[in-house]
Amino acid sequence: KVRDLSRVDCTRTLACACVCVHVRACVRACMHVRVRMCVFAFAFFSLTPGRAPDGRCLLTCSNDNVLRVFDLPPSVYGQQPVSSEAEVTEMTSVLSSREGELIYDYCWYPKMNSEDPTSCLYLSSCRDHPIHAWDAYTGSLRCSYRAYNHLDEITAAHSIQFSSDGSKIYCGFDRTLRVFDTSRPGRECTQRRLTSKRDAGLRGIVSCIGVYQHLYALGSYSKSIGVYSERGRGERICVLTGQHGGVTHLQFCNDGLHLLSGGRKDNEILCWDLRNPGQVLWSAIRLVTTNQRVQFDMDQSGRYLFSGGQDGHVRIYDTTQQIEPSSSAGSAVTDGADGDGDGYGGDLQLAEVCRVAVHDDAVNGCRLHPTAPMLATTSGQRKFANPGGRGDGSDSDDGETNAGGAADAEKSQSCHRDNSMRLWSFAAAVQPSSS
Prior knowledge:
Layout: H1 27-30, E1 35-41, E2 50-51, E3 57-61, E4 66-71, H2 74-77, E5 89-90, E6 95-98, E7 103-108, E8 121-126, E9 131-135, E10 141-145, E11 159-162, E12 168-173, E13 176-181, E14 190-193, E15 206-212, E16 215-220, E17 224-229, E18 235-241, E19 247-252, E20 258-263, E21 268-273, E22 279-285, E23 296-298, E24 304-307, E25 313-318, E26 324-325, E27 331-335, E28 343-344, E29 348-349, E30 352-357, E31 363-368, E32 374-379, H3 399-413, E33 420-425
Parallel strand pairs: 1-5
Antiparallel strand pairs: 1-33, 2-3, 3-4, 4-6, 7-8, 8-9, 9-10, 11-12, 12-13, 13-14, 15-16, 16-17, 17-18, 18-27, 19-20, 20-21, 21-22, 23-24, 24-25, 25-30, 26-29, 27-28, 31-32, 32-33
């Protein structure tokens, strides 16, 4: 059961989206979530998440084009659960970095260590601006990585991600991937075309990037995924198709043999077997009905999968439990060499083992801490007021119609919004079963 010990009034907020922290903890403890450790309410629409690899702070992005860093409460380090409502506090940012336009994506440096200030940095990409590297200690700008189009104008990356060792920066564009050397800011980069006249390759805008050692995966709004090897200087291994919506989130499993993908307006999370490219091992069903990016996360053991949803719940799946037949559509794979390949159908579906109501609005961020028994969730979505009236912009002499339209607009404006980020503490002890 979940006991929500405090609430934050967010009547003036627009919407909150995602925060990113990893957690390695027993999921059985998560099924017995007892208290919320702390709450942060956004006064603006928050976008995609970022994470601190050492788990000591949170990085958020909001619609006011500001990146904010939050230090975790001291109780998190001591793993001391909150025992009363009085102890639940609201978090405040310790520093912020302002961008000039809407922020598309951002990420932490993978080797970040809070005890080494030189390693504390994060990247951000925003509309019509170069990629910026920010100091996580001062919030100041360290350097920029500039990408130019064929007109010699700065073009913004739609997605960014460090390589596993932090030596390279992958930047996703329309049918193009640009790779920067982390140690050399400026405009010098390697451009890798994802399509050609002879080979369709990966089409569309690169919307998300996942990395694992020398492998990296690119998700596209064209509902396809490309897997590449850095050892071969970007040689394509395969292209996976089968997602019903544009791909918005990719994550490699800890063994590097499986790839998880999720899309917008797509209720399925697909698990791809990279040993047999194109084979879908299983799918997990969640609720995603909008274009909003809804995140998922896998625990360090690789057994439990967590995902948010539009109904305010966090769903938990056990990948080792009995799986059930699924009516999902089949998927296909295209070999990277010649563009021809056989299609494989995924007909297995994970059973949902737990569902926890954590917010009163869409849960778009669901991430786990790397060491502490803690889960971070964020909620919120854009909600528009009903303009009321006749809707054609013309004047009306019907007083009743105008009054009714005003009432509808007022009702729409007063609809409930839960725009917050919450940290949940797992139960300190789990009673073992008699068996």
